[in-house]
Amino acid sequence: MKTMIKRIAMIAFFFFNKAEANNIGSGTIASAMLETSSQHVSKDGMVNWTMETEFSALPYVVEQYIFDRWVKIGEIKPMGGPNSNSYSYPAVFHSGENKFRIKQRNPDRSIKYSEEMVYFSKKSPVCYQVSKNNQYIEFSRETFYVIYNPYGEVIARGTGESVDISKYEKGNYCLIYDGQLGGFRKKNVLMKNSFCPIVL
Q1: Contact 98/64 with Cβ under 8 angstroms?
Q2: Fold of the CATH domain 34-121
Q3: How far apart are CA 199 and CA 166, in angstroms?
Q4: For 125, phi and psi rounded to 5 degrees?
Q5: How far is 82 from 85, CA to CA, in rounded Å?
Q6: The pLDDT of residue 57
Q7: Distance between CA 138 and CA 100 in Å, rounded?
Q8: Which class does domain 2-20+124-191 fall in?
Q9: pLDDT at 196
Q10: pTM greater than 0.85
Q11: Residue 158 belongs to what H/E stretch?
Q12: How far apart are CA 97 and CA 119, in angstroms?
């Protein structure tokens, strides 16, 4: 069983990197520093930052480092003006070290990044299992997750304690969760609602 999961994870890792590489824009100018006057992550899961002056109306994108790359978790529109403005955005911690940053794209397509914000969570690592009838992925607690199908396409992304996989086709899937890489095999299930479902 462990060998099978390891093989699925290796296949998933290839598709994960292939799919994410397709999301990288072309023609982007070198990045610069986004100068915040203060920034921190609070223990209640809020990413906080303050800007002294704001000349761009383009949104602030909040990113979290998950597994091996930065992932967008949300965005906020600037209030603008010469006054100091403060912002907060909710995040879901994974176990261990959590890293966040703020990104803003300028009209000339250059990108500014804030300094990284680090928060160490004492939450226990998340475990997961495929439910008995191969209908759900169940996590031990709430976590951010991303699921890739056997072709490397994102088919599910969100935060929760379970994911409905009942309509997924048979095959091997990549599962990113709790800042880790995992995988699972979806099987065909006949007579799902009976007392004796058949798993193929």
Answers
A1: yes
A2: Immunoglobulin-like (2.60.40)
A3: 12
A4: -55, 145
A5: 9
A6: 86
A7: 26
A8: mainly beta
A9: 46
A10: no
A11: strand 154-164
A12: 6
